[in-house]
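Recap quiz, item 2
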Amino acid sequence: MARDLEVALAVARKDALAELRGRHATGTTIFFAAIVLLLFGFALGPDARRLEEAAPGLMWLAIVFAGLLAVGRLHETETEDDALEQLALFPVARHALYLGKALAGFAAMLVLGVALLPLVALLYRVDLLAAWLPLGLTLVLGTAGFAAVATAYAALTMRMQAREVLLPLLVLPVVAPLLLAAVKATTAALAGDPFGELASWLQLLAGFDVLMVIAGAVTYRFGLED
Amino acid sequence: MRTRTLGWVALVAVVAATLNSLVGVPADLNQGDAQRVMYIHVPSAWLAYLSFGVTALAGIGWLWKRDLRFDWLAVASAEIGVMFTAFTLLAGAMWGRPVWGVFYQWDDPRILSTTILLTLYSGYLLLRRMTDDPIRRANRAAVVGFIAALDIPIVHFSVEWWRSIHQVATFGSPARILHPAAPGAFVIALLSMLGAFTIAWIYLMIRRYQLAALEARIDEAARRGTLAAARAAAEAGVPEVVPRAGEAIR
């Protein structure tokens, strides 16, 4: 178990290092998400009240779209130069590799989310600082669940011709409940949780995360040994 | 030959049960003839869930036993399940328009979860279609079927909460008509439709499974043919034989 964790951290560190040394995938996805946020404003604006009401949903949609790119990219770099074969040859547990890749995806999405928050506050005039703790919790749980699902499916599709189309088609329906819960939790957090529903949405997110991390860990080898 | 007999039985049963639910049972007092849609809607929904259950189990069976027959079962049930999910939504929309005034009701959690179900398994079928190699296809499909099946209860809970936190649905969902208060003739009509549809489902499953088996044989023959052609060409000294698309040599 400790060994698996070590492997997972090593894989995640490798991805983070590659990212820092110039792959720039996260930077690109942040830019993409920022444009999406801006375009949502064009689509729904210029009524500022409407934008403010829709802000939680728009923010999460931007995170989901950009997250698809980020996690897909993390696996694409593996298929270049046969890096994946090398990775698959390591005599370590497959679920440890999954945890590492999911962890890297989670980290990339967390950076993405943190970068987007001030932009959301600025563009849609939402006061995020007042509810920073529940918002942060929602962001962590939401991006973790998304990374768990997207990593599992990215491994399945990375060798396919049509992966750019297929990955969203497979991931989006599965994360539908996650999106719903994350948007609801964000809305509740911003409104000061008037109905006391925040905790149940966070629990739903946590349950989703646990279930999908286990599912991804169990099934990762079938994509890897393809 | 026995499968064909089953097909005829299914046809007769579906026609008889449909006629009964169209003219045999009286129309609903409040909803009129629109309520008769329920006789298709509920059996379709039941078969959709049954199919996806089979898909998930067959996928696990494949990963465990490594027998491609499990995968044939999985593709049969997934395709038939998608069809019945579409039936469920279509029938629901046809019923919703006269009774609710809208085709698609965002207030009803069941409609939302059924729509997500349709997208989940449409993705499953697309992934299958885009993978040529039978082993890889079975592997990938099994993983997607497994995760989708895990997702179904979460989808169900989430949309249920989503709607119920603000308001309770004012209109009865189709299933509420089934409340024991319904007259006996209605219950019998629905049960006979359920039975007839299930027989038809078994027939479709057998046929689709046989089709999958045939497809696998054709694939195999094509692969052998390509291999043999490549060998013959190599022996004859012809330099290059490029396999046609979809006939990858492993």
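Residues 48-79 of chain A form the longest helix (32 residues).
The mean pLDDT of chain A is 89.
End of item.
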